[in-house]
């Protein structure tokens, strides 16, 4: 098949359609002698005559059989070009997304649904992972983008973009002594047993909670651990201790739970997008752009200090 190009196939289809070398050459914007040479070369490569030249141009039986294959070649090529363009533009492909279950209670599901309506040819797979699990998954190639509880400070091999920031509120059971206290101050927390998630699941957030409390003059007593925020809330409702939880979780109206602010203790948690700086998946870039835009609409001050 050496020497056979797409141009030869396209030229053959034009000649077959108009049954005239002159008109086909004009439509192809090439000289007629060149078109004749191309058809001769095509016949040499195929190994048989495809066109009758005189008295009128028409397909030979071999040309008739070759015609649908030639059309298929061009159609497949056009489809391939379209697929390549969509893939390069991030409009076609596969996205492995780290998505902790509790984020389903936030604004993110609607933003992701809007993304999927806009990019129907992107298949999104969700993996329920902790922040630490997502960071490991990114580096291992298990996920393309993570939604993590970590501030937006990119470092090393990861790009981290903050998309939401919310206060951490003190969570106590209704019968706890702090539930109805008029003003809760940091020193009121000193003797309380605290419940937090394991440090290994979100080290940056865990450390920031303890550090913020320390700066306010309180050494938190971590008495128990819950596997995730939902487990932490369950333990608080069971009066096993108190905790700090994101405002979005504390305002769900769960029975058996009271959330309060602590005077002089302004803790926050940042939700960020994370992905590898070396990522070559165009879908990642498009998804990040879409989520960042949704974030600006939802939280205009995200990323500002």
From TrEMBL:
* Listed Pfam families: HTH_1, LysR_substrate
Q: Which SUPFAM superfamilies match?
A: Periplasmic binding protein-like II, Winged helix' DNA-binding domain
One GO molecular-function entry: DNA-binding transcription factor activity
Q: Name one GO cellular component term.
A: protein-DNA complex
Tell me which domain of life the UniProt entry assigns to the organism this sequence originates from. Answer: Bacteria
Which ranges carry the HTH lysR-type domain? 4-60
| Keywords (A to Z) from UniProt | DNA-binding, Transcription, Transcription regulation
Region forming the signal peptide: none
Give the record's family classification. Answer: Belongs to the LysR transcriptional regulatory family.
> What's the protein called, per UniProt?
LysR family transcriptional regulator
Species assigned in the record: Sphingomonas sinipercae
């Amino acid at each position: 098949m050496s020497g056979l190009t797409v141009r030869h196939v396209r030229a053959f289809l034009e000649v077959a359609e108009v049954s005239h070398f002159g008109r086909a050459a004009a439509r192809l914007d090439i000289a007629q002698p060149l078109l004749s040479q191309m058809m001769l070369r095509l016949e040499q490569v195929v190994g048989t005559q495809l066109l009758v030249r005189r008295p009128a141009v028409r397909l030979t039986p071999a040309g008739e059989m070759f015609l649908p294959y030639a059309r298929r070649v061009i159609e497949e090529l056009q489809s391939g070009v379209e697929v390549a363009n969509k893939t390069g533009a991030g409009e076609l492909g596969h996205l492995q997304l780290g998505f902790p279950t509790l984020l389903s209670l936030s604004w993110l599901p609607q933003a992701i649904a809007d993304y999927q309506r806009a990019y129907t040819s992107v298949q999104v797979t969700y993996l329920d992972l902790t922040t630490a699990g997502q960071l490991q998954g990114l580096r291992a190639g298990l996920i393309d983008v993570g939604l993590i509880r970590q501030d937006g400070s990119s470092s090393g091999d990861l790009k981290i973009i903050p998309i939401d920031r919310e206060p951490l509120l003190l969570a106590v059971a209704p019968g706890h002594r702090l539930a109805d206290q008029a003003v809760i101050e940091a020193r009121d927390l000193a003797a309380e047993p605290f419940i937090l998630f394991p440090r290994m699941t979100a080290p940056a957030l865990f450390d920031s909670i303890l550090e913020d409390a320390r700066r306010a003059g309180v050494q938190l007593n971590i008495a128990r651990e819950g596997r995730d925020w939902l487990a932490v809330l369950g333990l608080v409702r069971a009066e096993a201790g108190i905790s700090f939880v994101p405002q979005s979780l504390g305002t769900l109206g769960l029975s058996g739970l009271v959330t309060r602010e602590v005077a002089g203790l302004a803790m926050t948690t940042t939700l960020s997008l994370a992905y590898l700086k070396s990522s070559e998946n165009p879908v990642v870039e498009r998804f990040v752009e879409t989520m960042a835009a949704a974030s600006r609409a939802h939280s205009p001050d995200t990323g500002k200090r």
